[in-house]
Every structure is written in C-alpha cells, then in structure tokens.
Amino acid sequence: MSFIQVQATSDFSFHNLPYGVFSTADNPKRRIGVAIGDQILDLSVIMSLFQGPVLSKHQDVFAQPTLNAFMALGYEAWRESRRTLQVLLSANESTLRDDVSLRSRAFVSQSAAIMHLPADIGDYTDFYSSRDHATNVGTMFRGKENALMPNWLRLPVGYHGRASSVIVSGTPIRRPSGQMRPDQTKPPVFGPSKQLDIELEMAFFVGGGNQLGEPIPIEKAHEHIFGMVLMNDWSARDIQSWEYVPLGPFLGKNFGTTISPWVVPMEALLPFAESNVIQDPEPLPYLQHQDPYTFNINLFVSLKGQGNAEPATICKSNFKYMYWTMKQQLAHHTVNGCNIRPGDLLASGTISGPDPESFGSMLELSWRGTKSIDMGGGDTRTFLKDGDEVTITGYCEGNGYRVGFGPCMGTILPALQH
Q: Which one from 15, 133, 289, 333 is the annotated catalytic residue?
C-alpha cells in the first residue's frame, strides 16, 4: 500500500494517517506531521504538494505550530488533505518515494520526536455517555432503583471542564490536595486525595465551527468532527464526592486530563462504524440520526506500579458501548446556539461495558474501594498510588492492519506539601 514499511501490529498503518504536532532536539520548532509506521511525515516540508482546490490556496496551514488553522478550513479540506496524503505515500507514486533529498528532509523517526498537544484547546466539554458507567456509579451512590437520573436517557449529560489542564501523553500528574469528608459525622479535612482514579475516555476535536446563536443540525454534525484521541480524565473521587453538589465536578477533575498526541481522522474510522445503540425512549427529533456513528475501537488500560517489572491490564473495553453518539453530543451542545470553535475538545465520559473487566474506572473496578484490583505478583490496588504509571491504548482491527492511537500515558507524582 505504501513505500513506507509498516508492521501489521503498528497503530499507524497506511489506512490511518493521523495528524499530530511534534518537534525534535535539532529543530525545536513545533510542526504538523502525519504518522505512518515508525515515521512522521513533516507536512511543513511538503506543503507545496497540496494542490487541491481548497488547500492550494491555504498551504500555509501546514506551517503552523498547531492544527487549529487546518481544522478551521472544514470538512472538504480535511478530505482533500487525506486524498493527497494517500497518493503521496502510496507505493506506486514517485514524488516522495524517489526523491532522496526530499525524503531525508520530510521524514522523521518517531523515536526522535517530541510530541505536543495537537491544538490550542479553547474549550473542553466532558460528557457522561456510557450507560453502563452511569448505571454503576448511580447504583453505588443512589441504589439500583435510582441509578439513572430522569434526564439521562433523554439527552447527553455533560459539563464544561478546564482546558488549561489538558496535557499531552507522558506528562506526569501531581496528586491533588483538597477538601474531603471521609467521615460524614465530622467536618471536612484538607489533604492529598486518597482516592485518585483513572477514567478511560475518548474525545474528538471540533473543526469548522458555528456562529453564536446558530445550532449545528445533527445532519451536518459529522462535518464538524475532525478526529479522535484517547483520553484519561484523572479524577480525585474523595474531593469530587464532597464538592460536586449542586454544581457538579470542579477541583476533583480539573487538575489534569491526559490525551494521546495523534488525532485519528474520522475518515480512517468510518470503516469500523457499527449500528447505533437502540435508544429507548426515542430521543427528540434534533437528536435523531439513522446513519451508523458508533465505532468498534478496542480499548485497554494498563497499570504499572513503581518497582513492578510488567504492567497489568486492568480494563478491556470498547468505544461501541457508548449510548450517545458524537453526532448527538455535538448537536445537543449547540442546539441552544452555543458557538464552538476549531480546536475545542469534546469527551465521551468514562467508557464502561457490561462486564466487570470492561469497567473504565477504578471506582467501578474496586466497586468504591470494597474490592481489590489484582495487578499480579501479590500487588493490588483500589485506587492509584504515587509512582503508578497508567497507559491507555486503543485500535480498530482491520484485515492485516490496525488504525490505532498510540499511547495515552501518565505517572502519578506525590502531592506537594502544604
């Protein structure tokens, strides 16, 4: 398929071609690249080769230090870019393949690259769209009969998160301190969180945008969904459980949110689309769409304790378990006229499946700390310890190839002394 050799188990096959922002030790300038195999194609070097009707007028978007300007060009520009890249990287196209000088400048080994956030993220919204997760958490805190709140099956529930603390994979996470109330008969106490948790999520970047007061109809929502990343939305459960009534998550969530650096375009994921979950009751008309926009993406969470030789896989889940689709999330987000901008990040919420091994948080895996999570070698967890390294991975499985995301990783640092 491509003149670049790609292993069958590589996340970055010719079918993928995700976008990211990277730099190197000998060139600290941040630039846009596309991953293929173990290589990165530097688009700033080859931007003159984008000769299509849209990008021929906007080649400079590939000279920017973020993807925002490219995202802003919209759906047709993204499709045009992908078609151009598929031609340039194909085995029977000589432009890059046979130009030794151009290839030496255009390709960088991934092992030599420093990855950065792919976009300036102006706003970040976190949804709560896994029915299994919402049911599990609701059962823990309210009982089985009241697990789902009355609105949950009617609309994609969400809240606005903190964009400034969204960080790229590999950035350490400092254990947060805050107010907690572990004993309900006593006043709250201040200190480091003792219930630091993961949240297995995915998120999509918005492209295009809309004017204030003009909703994005669900029929057009896909034209504003640029691509997807893996996400770990770290959560301090003890801080959150004390603070969240009545306005929702705050300090228990805004201390850090990790995303993978490569943005997989939606066109690469469309071959893995599946029928949407049957929603009962039927959503209101502005949330209805018949085209499949649920994706079969295998997801894994591994946890490696400080001093442990090997990580333990503690969760195996799948994005197809989501109840509300990304199109529904975006249509709901803007139905009141809220304006979204290129580079805005919209997250799925914790992705849990129907089986215990598919629960996407330690809160569920340990069932609020009442069960031990086995990490092998006699090591167990209920929540995270200092020094723990968490890695989320995910991929779609094709016939002899993968469309994957690369790792989404973070290590826990001890809390600062107050």
A: 133
